[in-house]
Structure formats: structure tokens, C-alpha cells
Amino acid sequence: MPLTTFKAQAHLQQGVQVKASARNFEVTIDEPKELGGTDTGMNPVEAVLCALGACQAIVARTYAGKFGINFDDFRVEVEGDLDTDGFMGKPGVRPGYSEIRYTFHIDTKEPKEKLEEFVKYIEEHCPVGDSLANTVSLKLDSIVTGEQ
């Protein structure tokens, strides 16, 4: 498959609530009340964790047949450590995650050795995992004002 460009939009609403959309789908992103939001949706850093788990699950479903893996259920628990002082501008503190951990829960009768090979493949072929684990070129394309 050739290089594909995916697109999304994030439109700030009242307070810190954001309507995020891609293709014909929309989600509400917000902050919990203790972080200044109205708690109407997950926050952006929680969405990143969800995106990682969802991507890993999709890779698992897509490639299970290639490995002869049969499972009745596949679930990913994801958690990450983030120092909110970084967001608040404290010098020397990163605003992003310092570590993200995940656990695969696979309901299967497959042998452990076969699962280990399958899990390694999932980890190596998950686009979100790759994007988080490796440096990605992140650049502002342009600034458009209402006056243009």
C-alpha cells in the first residue's frame, strides 16, 4: 500500500472542550473538572492511550490468521505516566508521557511460544505504537487568520 495521508480536525468549543473529527466521525475531547474541563469526554492524553490500545487490537485481529492464532477475546489495558507540571510550564519537566505501559489480555488456548511471536509482530507493526516510540517529524504547516 502506498503512502497514505490521514486527516483530522480539532475544533475548540466552550472552555477546553474540543470536537475532534476524522472522515465522518466525531468525538468530544475534554478535560476532567479538576483540570479545568467539564468532563464531557476523555482528554487528549487519554485518547492517545486509547489509540494505542485500539491500534494494537486491530493489528492483532488483522494478522491472527497469518500466525494461526485463534482467540475468543483480545483486550489491551494501557496506562501512562505524565507529569502535569510540564503542561503548567514548570522548567525542566516534559509536558508529555515519560512512560506508557500496556498489557495484552488474550483469551486463547494457543501455546505461549506462538503467542510471544504473535505479540512481537503486533508491537513491530502497530502504526500508533511506532509513532509513539520513534521520533516523528511534527511541524506547523501554516497559520490562517480570519482576516485572510
Textual characterization of the structure:
By secondary structure, this protein is of the alpha+beta class. It folds into two domains: 1-41; 43-133, K homology (KH) domain (GMP Synthetase, Chain A, domain 3, 2-Layer Sandwich). The chain has helices at 44-63, 84-87, 112-125, 127-133; strands at 9-12, 18-22, 25-29, 73-82, 97-107. The strands form two sheets. It has a three-stranded antiparallel β-sheet, with no helix packed on it. A hairpin with a 2-residue loop joins strand 2 (18-22) and strand 3. Helix 1 crosses helix 3.
Compute the number of strand runs: 5
Task: List SSEs in N-to-C order.
Answer: EEEHEHEHH
Strand order of the largest sheet: 1-2-3
Largest sheet: 3 strands, antiparallel
